[in-house]
Amino acid sequence: MTALPLGRPLPRPARPTLRATGVVAGAAGGVASLAMPYVLDPGVALRLVVAVLVALQIRLLFAIPAMVVHLVIRLRSRRLHATLCVAVLAAAPLVGAGTPDAPAAPPAPPGLSVAGAEFVAGATAPARITQVTGAPAVEPIRAYASLGDGGTDAARAAAAVDDLRRDGGFTRSTILVAAPTGSGWVDPAAVATVEYLTGGNVATVAVQYADRPSWVEYLEGTGPAERSAAALVTAVRAALDALPAGPRPRLVLFGESLGAIAAAGVADRADATLLAGLPGSANRPAPPHATTILNADDPVGYWSPRLLVAPDGPGPWLPIVTFWQVTGSLPGAQDVPAGHGHRYGGGFAQGFVDAGAVPAPAAATVTAVGRAIDG
What we know:
Elements: H1 15-35, H2 37-40, H3 44-73, H4 78-97, H5 114-121, H6 126-133, E1 141-145, H7 153-166, E2 174-179, H8 188-197, E3 202-207, H9 214-220, H10 223-241, E4 250-256, H11 258-264, E5 272-276, E6 291-293, H12 299-302, H13 321-329, H14 347-354, H15 363-374
Parallel strand pairs: 1-3, 2-3, 2-4, 4-5, 5-6
Helix pairs in contact: 1-3, 7-10, 8-15, 10-11, 14-15
């Protein structure tokens, strides 16, 4: 191999090859966009718009680095070449280092997932409830069925109801059915809020249907989440109907994000329902039997391909621009203070009161609970 002197310009890259690469990548991006469930709901015209935009973006991503490389290799300055080499060598260890590893999650008890273990262990202590509300309290009950508790939605729901019955959950005034996210996580702020507002006189039950991030589950379809919620509500309602005549616990339903989509489908079978952060891309209105809460700056609640061509949410709107602004806000939707973005925190207190999930408490109690949740 013959080395070229640093001062001599190198041959120009083949433009047809670069152009062909960009076109192929752009076409692949367009096809992928058309296939994404996020874009399947709107009409064909909107799908084509999104496909073209993605194709152009990928084409640009391929073209810009090539132009930069082409410019650099044509430079004649030995000093600049040397500087670039030193910079690359210095940056290599930093790129390889990455970010520190997150602390390992504590091991879950046998048969219970990590999400389930955190859920069950997080019940609010009666002393803490009394400290916040000023009223006597009892120990809240929590039951959780993980993926390993059954091979079907019905089996896992039955296991959760059995745990609920064994722990005395059906002696409480309220049964809270929580629809988790794709990883099995249930927002602890929501469950703790009901525990505060009921003085601990509540049993909360949840069933895991997957162990992947919500966005992965959403891309593959909301069917598993909806079927799991339906199975659990059916099992809890059957257990309530089998109780002796007389006062029975109220069935309250809660779902957040992907869990809100799951809970929305069975809201008519609950005595009260609260949906938080219902994804805008779900393209479905909240059921009339449910109360919804949505932060004005929650990108999850407003993101939708419809934003490309029409306003759909608060604030000013510009074609295409607003869509990408909201899209860019999605990754950091949880990295904000409670009450903003995709975090609801203390806002759950008023939400559950408005939904009729708990007896109407004094306004001061609602405020105190909200502050305790936001901590």
